[in-house]
Design goal:
By secondary structure, this protein is mainly β. It has one helix and nine strands, in the order E-E-E-E-E-E-E-H-E-E. The strands form two sheets. The chain has a five-stranded antiparallel β-sheet, with no helix packed on it. It has a four-stranded antiparallel β-sheet with strand order 7-6-8-9, with no helix packed on it.
Amino acid sequence: DREIRQVKNSTAIQTASGGRFQFTDVNDQGVDYYLSGTVLMRNTDTLSGGVSALTFGYYNATGYSLAAPLDAYNLTQVSRVSINATMTSGTESKSLETQVFLRNSGT
């Protein structure tokens, strides 16, 4: 979640859907988080296997939930991102959730 705080500014988000989050960071590098099968990816790098679900949620500065996928206007309104992931190993599952306030969102 620390890296997501590095979104360059409110116009640096390219894609904000339920299963994918793409943005440009403060170093002008493209970052793309998504699930490929059961593998959590960051660009072309594997972050973790055994991920059975990944969901992103988006909120504006007043805490209002923005319906994904976000249109061009709502992309510029994102102030907070929630990340929900379910990790599965055999018959065991563990759900993880975090929320990230974007660094340069004005909040």
